[in-house]
Structure formats: structure tokens, C-alpha cells
TrEMBL record, chain A:
Quaternary structure note: Component of the precatalytic spliceosome (spliceosome B complex). Component of the U4/U6-U5 tri-snRNP complex, a building block of the precatalytic spliceosome (spliceosome B complex). The U4/U6-U5 tri-snRNP complex is composed of the U4, U6 and U5 snRNAs and at least PRPF3, PRPF4, PRPF6, PRPF8, PRPF31, SNRNP200, TXNL4A, SNRNP40, SNRPB, SNRPD1, SNRPD2, SNRPD3, SNRPE, SNRPF, SNRPG, DDX23, CD2BP2, PPIH, SNU13, EFTUD2, SART1 and USP39, plus LSM2, LSM3, LSM4, LSM5, LSM6, LSM7 and LSM8.
Protein name (record): U6 snRNA-associated Sm-like protein LSm6
Cited function: Plays a role in pre-mRNA splicing as component of the U4/U6-U5 tri-snRNP complex that is involved in spliceosome assembly, and as component of the precatalytic spliceosome (spliceosome B complex). The heptameric LSM2-8 complex binds specifically to the 3'-terminal U-tract of U6 snRNA. Component of LSm protein complexes, which are involved in RNA processing and may function in a chaperone-like manner, facilitating the efficient association of RNA processing factors with their substrates.
Main location: cytoplasm
Family: Belongs to the snRNP Sm proteins family. SmF/LSm6 subfamily.
Stored Pfam families: LSM
UniProtKB/TrEMBL annotation, chain B:
Family indicated by similarity: Belongs to the snRNP Sm proteins family.
Stated name of the protein: U6 snRNA-associated Sm-like protein LSm5
Subunit relationships: LSm subunits form a heteromer with a doughnut shape.
Organism field: Cebus imitator
Boundaries of every Sm domain copy: 7-72
Gene: LSM5
């Protein structure tokens, strides 16, 4: 675990291809594999699942999320 | 104790972040010009339901649009 100060641009290069959690401003949660993203936080996900309280929808293939809706993008390694 | 406030106001301190909505996040960080933030060892707090919600390890990229306030060295609401 590298606890160095990181800028977002460095972070973005590192997380592509990893399973992520994307939370929107509306509170909806999306979990999937990060296909690509840009500096506006526009996101393309694969094998996406949509969670509001419980599990709602399953999307397979690509999902595109517009960056202005994104609250955060988190990697999931589940070390807890 | 070190007053490095001129170059880097927010070093690898645990930083308490207050969002526009009733959410607060504590984590260690780096950030960019738009105040988007990369946080590690993140704890999310929601104010209305009592107490802390989710503790995430690894890293998150937090969108700067929703950030209201940063408290360097802060630990978040103590519950």
C-alpha cells in the first residue's frame, strides 16, 4: 500500500481495468470493471450492477456514465 | 507542529471533508487544481442516520464539485 500523495491524473491511470464502485450525486451506486474514464469523470464500465438500496438492475456490456453526476469513484479491494 | 502551510497546506494528514449534502469524509489525500481529491483509508460519515457508515480501504477519487469544506488534521464527527 503506497501512502504517497497522489494527484487524480496519476490515480486515473492506475485504476483502469480494476473493479470499482461509482457513486452518483443521486446516491445510486454502480459497481463494475472500469473500462475507461477521462478528466471529466465520464466513465465507461463493464459488467455493471446498479444498487440503490438493494440490488436493482444488472447491466452487461458497456455502461456510460456522464461525469457531472459522479460523486466519487472508488476501487474495491476488500481488505477489511 | 511544523508550519508548512505555504507550499502544501494539505499533506498526508487525515483530512476531514465536508460535502454539500449531509456527508463527511475523512481520509489521507492528494488533490489537483479543481480540488478533485484522491483519498486513501477513507471513512464515510452520514450525519442524519446516527454514526459512521462505510469504511473503504484503497483509494477513491472524490469529485470536487460537491466539496464544501476541508479540515486538515480533522478526524470527522466523533460518534
Amino acid at each position: 500500500m503506497s501512502l504517497r500523495k497522489q494527484t487524480p491524473s496519476v490515480f486515473l491511470k492506475q485504476i483502469i481495468g480494476r473493479p470499482v464502485v461509482v457513486k452518483l450525486n443521486s446516491g445510486v451506486d454502480y459497481r463494475g470493471v472500469l473500462a475507461c474514464l477521462d478528466g471529466y469523470m465520464n466513465i465507461a464500465l463493464e459488467q455493471t450492477e446498479e444498487y440503490v438500496n438493494g440490488q436493482l438492475k444488472n447491466k452487461y456490456g458497456d455502461a456510460f456514465i456522464r461525469g457531472n453526476n459522479v460523486l466519487y469513484i472508488s476501487t474495491q479491494k476488500r481488505r477489511t | 507542529m511544523a508550519a508548512n502551510a505555504t507550499t502544501n497546506p494539505l499533506q498526508l494528514l487525515p483530512t476531514h471533508i465536508v460535502m454539500k449534502s449531509d456527508k463527511e469524509i475523512v481520509g489521507t489525500l492528494g488533490f489537483d487544481d479543481f480540488v478533485n481529491m484522491v483519498l486513501e483509508v477513507v471513512t464515510k460519515f452520514e450525519i442524519t442516520p446516527k454514526g459512521r457508515r462505510i469504511t473503504k480501504l484503497d483509494q477513491i477519487l472524490l469529485n470536487g464539485n460537491n466539496i464544501t469544506m476541508l479540515v486538515p488534521g480533522g478526524e470527522g464527527p466523533e460518534v
